[in-house]
Amino acid sequence: MKKFKSFKQKFKSYCLLFFVIIYCFSTFSYVGWYREGDKMTYLTSDGYKVANAWRESDGMKFYLDENGYVLYDKVFWYNGKIYYVGPNGAKVTNSFVEVTSDMIIGDEIAPGYFYFSEDGSAYIKNGSNFLKSINGKKYAFDELGHIVADCWLNKDGDLIESNNEIITDGIYHIKPDGTIHQNEWYDYTSDPGSDYGMEESNTMASSYDDLSNLWMYFNSKGEKVYSSGDSYKKVTLNGKEYTFDNNGILVMGFQKSRSELDTHQASNPTITDRIKFYDKYEGYLVKNKWVYDATPEAFSESDYYDGKDYWYYIDDSGSLVKNRIKTIGNNKYSFDGFGRLRKGFILVDGITFYGAEYKSEDLTREDFIFSILDGGRLYGSDLLDLRYFIEDEAGENEGKMATGNIEIELADGKYEFNFRDSGVAYGNKNELKFFKNTYYKNGIKFIPWEDTRYGIVKVSDTEYRVINSSGKLVTGRKKVIKDDYENYIIILNDKLAAYIVQPSRKVKLRWKTFNNITGYYYYDMDYEKKRYTGLAVASGTTCPTADEISDIPNDMKVNFR
Prior knowledge:
The protein is mainly beta. The chain folds into 4 domains: 32-122, left handed beta-beta-3-solenoid; 192-345, left handed beta-beta-3-solenoid (Ribbon); 356-445, no CATH class; 454-556, no CATH class. The protein has a 3-stranded antiparallel beta sheet, with no helix packed on it. Strands 25-24-26 form a 3-stranded antiparallel beta sheet, with no helix packed on it. It has a 3-stranded antiparallel beta sheet with strand order 29-30-31. A hairpin with a 2-residue loop joins strand 1 and strand 2. It is rod-shaped and about 170 Å long.
């Protein structure tokens, strides 16, 4: 009886425990991940499925849809952001993903390439915030979260759809792989839009059509470097200076002048601005260098269309040397108002330096000896300084200013010229110059015309001198010589005293004092009683008569008619 009572008590205890267990199971549900067939869900403490929320497992996050089931390989909006869960259902982070239409939930997401960031949300353009750095490279995104590629964006990151607007509004260029240009060059001629909207450059003298490449540069921010208004945008790269125009095109060749030409001197229109020159192949600022280049249309339309090339010199500041005589090395060179190297005979004034220019092949000896009024063609030579700059083509002396003695070939022959150390011609400004026993005018050395042994130089209306075939002055206190025509040239005190045409009868000239006049007289060889004429043909105080001057053959008249 006692054993039965003990059993009965134990049974009651077991029944109580069973009911407690049954009660607990009926009161508390399972919390956590739960498989329902081939689907996964997450149960709350009250037994409900979690929906429209993230839950974590083994360090990964999974999204449960509106029905409480885990999504797989889907893209969707959540709390104003776009997310992607991969084929295993886990949230994808720090990854590029190509989203196709079958992956999208909802109507507000379009297929394309996305990047899902550290927190799993896709980058999306937000106002001016449209660039993101990913693995050291920058990408641009639109309002739908797409990575944009192979296109141009304006300063606000908006896509430029019209080719005509690319060159003016394009700031960012996106490569085909979606990265933007940063700290790198881009040849705009390779762009499909380069045939559109290319207006004239505001800073470059050359036409875009004259360049084989149209280089652009994008800075560290990915922005196209370009100038604003009429300013010059300068950038230093690897120690070299570059300039970009209003379209962002690298300036190559000459800068454009921003001021009108100074045309006060018609023979030498002058660029008033400082003009820089940039290498025609690499675009960097050139310094201390000769440049051989075509004439830009902005400088001279006629030379441009004629295809004329010139030498230019760029100084140590990178500026074009113009309208001056410049010492380069040990030599001096002449540059006009456009900076073109000038050669030939150049007349220089004291204000703008360059007055006129003459090529030696277009001039004759007479042009130097006779003024404009007497038939010469050196216009301005009576007012301006005359210099000569060597005309050799492609020779080492090309363009150098001549000094000292130099032979120059004119249209009618080769002649000797002489220039001072300053380059100014002896006999400058049509003034007769006697130097080292020789006469010069406008630099040319006086010699007799043709092949006569002697020439007569008019020093003034009352003074004439005699030179020999080499141009040297024939001197003498009293001297009688015969010219090529067998006429007498009488020299007294180094000057021409008389020119006597050989008389038909047999006479000679002899020195004698007669009637208190000492000089040369005719001595008639045919008369024994009257040997001398009664009038001296030349004395220390006489000069050639007008008749005698007219008797001098033109071949012997060096500088008078």
